[in-house]
Design goal:
Helix content: 40-55%
CATH class of the largest domain: Alpha Beta
Shape: globular
Radius of gyration: 26 Å
Strand order of the largest sheet: 2-1-3-4-5-11-10
Number of domains: 2
CATH topology of the largest domain: Rossmann fold
Number of helices: 14
């Protein structure tokens, strides 16, 4: 064998060995990071909003290694700079390509603007924005919140389906000074008239006023029997205040009234406390299991067909659904402007049909309603 041929053979062997070595050493890296991105997720703590935190846990369990999760301060109104620092801290990781903020507490718009100074391509998805929608909409890529105007119609319609002949609306001046809540009340009243349902508007004590929440809850427990005596058991009960939901459900159960939906519809809002149902570690964050447990309690108490809610908490949905939307968008499988496609993804995350509408004609501030779950039906 000539010297030239020998050298050529040696070169081929060395190149082949080197190629095999590079293949073996690079392959694990390619398979362990197939997505080539991470998603930041900001939620409240368990004490601030357990549902959104449980949604984060579910998303992390579904996609190990994909999500970087931080919690905003419980006292977020006084600690906005801390919150903004948490968001910018996530954006400092070059692998983070999208950030979900749930809830989008005050300071969100400022945080987004600060991140965009250095990361203009960052995708921001927010749930339940606290700041004015016209301010939030142009700042972020997608916003999600329940459609309060649509609920002005869907709640009376659901009450009618459940057999209601009257709908009782509990609120107080502070809430009625909020345009969205006042407009929803007016839509409710008009829809009740259209459906042939008596609309009953009752001014309850403000939980922030003298006597606080205990006084407001006591009023509910005392007033519901009076209203049932006046309008009959087929009166549906609704209140604009979160702290009134538990006594409202308990009073409906005691009097035989109808309870179609909470101010913030969710299986975990008011029902566990009113029904003395323990949400054990085994079913925390598992909404099908929670619905089943509530369903059993309602049927045992004789309330089948007269109590309902949405099948998933909005806080939970904004976390786990936001992650799904962000992941698919980053993979190039979802157009964030395609409202029907986004509705499909969120509906699959909620395990129920969802209808989305836009706040403005061309924006991605999405408002939604869900199909309801009637217990015992």
């Amino acid at each position: 064998m000539s010297k030239k041929i020998l050298i050529l053979v040696l070169v081929v062997v060395v190149v082949g060995a080197l190629a095999l070595y590079l293949t073996r050493t690079s392959a694990p890296e390619a398979t362990t990071d197939a997505t080539n991105f991470k998603i930041g997720l900001v939620t409240g703590t368990v004490s601030q909003n357990e549902d959104e935190y449980r949604g984060a846990e579910a998303a992390i369990a579904k996609y190990p290694g994909l999500i970087k999760h931080v919690t905003y301060p419980d006292n977020f109104m006084q600690e906005q700079e801390t919150f903004i620092a948490q968001v910018t801290g996530l954006a400092a990781d070059p692998e983070v390509k999208a950030i979900i903020i749930n809830q989008a507490v005050p300071g969100t718009v400022a945080a987004v603007r600060r991140v965009r100074e250095t990361r203009p391509d960052m995708i921001f998805i927010v749930g339940e924005p606290h700041e004015d929608p016209p301010l939030v909409e142009p700042a972020v890529d997608v916003s999600f919140m329940p459609d309060q105007w649509a609920r002005g119609k869907t709640i009376p319609q659901l009450a009618k389906e459940m057999g209601a002949t009257a709908l009782l609306h509990y609120s107080f001046p502070r809430h009625m000074s909020m345009a969205q809540l006042a407009e929803r009340r007016d839509i409710m009243k008009a829809e009740c008239e259209e459906l042939g349902i008596t609309f009953v508007d009752v001014n309850a004590p403000d939980p922030m006023g003298e006597g606080g929440l205990p006084a407001a809850q006591q009023f509910i427990l005392e007033d519901v029997p009076r209203q049932v005596a006046k309008y009959g058991k087929n009166i549906a009960l609704f209140s604009t205040n979160c702290g009134m939901q538990e006594p409202l459900i308990a009073a409906a159960m005691q009097t035989g009234a109808i309870f179609p939906e909470q101010c913030c519809p969710s299986p975990t809002h008011g029902y566990p406390g009113a029904l003395a149902l323990e949400i054990t570690d085994e079913i925390k964050g598992n909404f099908p299991a929670i619905l089943k447990a509530i369903d059993q309690k309602v049927k045992e108490s004789g309330g089948a067909g007269r109590f309902a809610t949405w099948p998933v908490a909005t806080g939970y949905l904004h976390s786990i659904g936001g992650v799904e939307v962000a992941k698919l968008a980053l993979e190039g499988k979802l157009d964030l402007n395609d409202i029907e496609a986004v509705a499909k993804v969120m509906g699959e995350a909620a395990d129920t049909a969802m209808e989305l509408t836009r706040l403005s004609d061309n924006g991605n501030f999405y408002m939604y309603t869900c199909d309801s779950y009637i217990f015992g039906k």
